[in-house]
């Protein structure tokens, strides 16, 4: 258990860095807004409030994800990360809506804006910092399979992109002196923010609804195919789910029907060990053993099988398509 908690320390460190930097950048952006009275800069500042709230909630969710399994949570607490990403996506979308409505109002009733060059410098600097922190969170999240870190990192990358667009827009306004462009740029950035909030929410809902992790399924099928044994006649009904840093896989494997319980246990243990040696992260497997049927003989490679009723014809390669279906491969 101690080893697992140590494994998750980088996640806590990464999200704490994000939280502290988000607070500093939020203050800087609001300073730029009060200096310029630019709606476009207010757009960026408002999204920074979401950054701070999301990072705070993400820190708490990662803390929960590090808690060990207990009687009430036999699969651990990692699924809270999907909820965290869902909340972050909703907050992003709400911020985008507020930005669009506020900018629409100021497009009709414009306000004087000033010191745009100084504001652009501040926003540009915050954008560069957000980009660097975003890369750091995304890489750490992928390394430790944390959807919360990935979500927060992608949010900061979105913020960096909007900041870059904002700087270009401010320079354009300064050169053309067309000040209503400020609200137009803000509306466009607000719509972009709403779209990214939707994408993040969609992914988190998929996790909460136990949507199968197809990238993980592809990796597992590839490992099984590369290391398959002649007694593993076929693998089907393979499913994979992620709960925070914990991976759960269940599948059915067809074995010779005359194997006794000790042989079945040996084969299943061999698959479990093989997955955990070759996969990137420790995985919990639930494997159901099916007995072979006469219709399996044509693709079964068991040598010297005394009960074979049909000669071996060809091996059926295991793919995502046939390994995930709930049927033996002779039904394909």
Automatic annotation (TrEMBL):
Record's subcellular location: Membrane
Domain Cation efflux protein transmembrane: 15-209
Membrane topology recorded in Swiss-Prot or TrEMBL: Multi-pass membrane protein
Keywords: Membrane, Transmembrane, Transmembrane helix, Transport
Sequence ranges assigned to domain Cation efflux protein cytoplasmic in this UniProt record: 215-292
One Pfam family linked to the record: ZT_dimer
Transmembrane intervals: 14-36, 48-68, 80-101, 116-136, 156-173
InterPro entries according to UniProt: Cation_efflux, Cation_efflux_CTD, Cation_efflux_CTD_sf, Cation_efflux_TM, Cation_efflux_TMD_sf, CDF_Transporter
Protein name per Swiss-Prot or TrEMBL: Cation diffusion facilitator family transporter
Organism per entry: Pedobacter gandavensis
């Amino acid at each position: 258990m101690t080893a697992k908690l140590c494994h998750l320390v980088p996640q806590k460190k990464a999200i704490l860095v994000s939280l502290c930097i988000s607070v500093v950048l939020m203050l800087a952006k609001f300073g730029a807004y009060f200096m310029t009275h630019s709606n476009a800069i207010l757009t960026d500042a408002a999204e920074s409030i979401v950054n701070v709230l999301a990072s705070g909630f993400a820190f708490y969710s990662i803390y929960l994800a590090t808690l060990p399994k207990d009687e009430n949570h036999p699969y651990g607490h990692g699924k809270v990360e999907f909820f965290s990403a869902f909340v972050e996506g909703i907050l992003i979308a709400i911020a985008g809506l507020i930005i669009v409505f506020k900018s629409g109002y100021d497009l009709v009733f414009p306000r004087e804006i000033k010191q745009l060059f100084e504001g652009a410098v501040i926003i540009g600097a915050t954008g560069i910092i957000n980009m660097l922190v975003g890369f750091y969170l995304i890489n750490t999240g992928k390394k430790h399979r944390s959807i919360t870190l990935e979500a927060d990192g992608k949010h900061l990358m979105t913020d960096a992109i909007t900041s870059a667009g904002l700087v270009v827009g401010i320079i354009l306004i300064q050169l053309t002196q067309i000040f209503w462009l400020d609200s137009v740029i803000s509306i466009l950035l607000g719509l972009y923010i709403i779209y990214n909030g939707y994408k993040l929410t969609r992914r988190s809902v998929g996790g909460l609804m136990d949507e199968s992790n197809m990238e993980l399924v592809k990796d597992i099928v590839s490992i099984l195919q590369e290391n398959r044994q002649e007694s593993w006649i076929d693998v089907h009904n393979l499913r994979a789910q992620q709960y925070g840093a914990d991976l759960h896989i269940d599948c059915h494997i067809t074995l010779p029907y005359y194997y006794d319980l000790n042989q079945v246990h040996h084969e299943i243990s061999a698959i479990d060990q093989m997955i955990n040696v070759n996969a990137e992260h420790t995985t919990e497997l639930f494997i159901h053993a099916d007995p072979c049927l006469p219709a399996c003989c044509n693709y079964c490679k068991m040598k010297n099988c005394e009960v074979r009723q049909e000669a071996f014809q060809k091996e059926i390669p295991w793919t995502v398509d046939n390994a995930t279906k709930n049927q033996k491969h002779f039904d394909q």
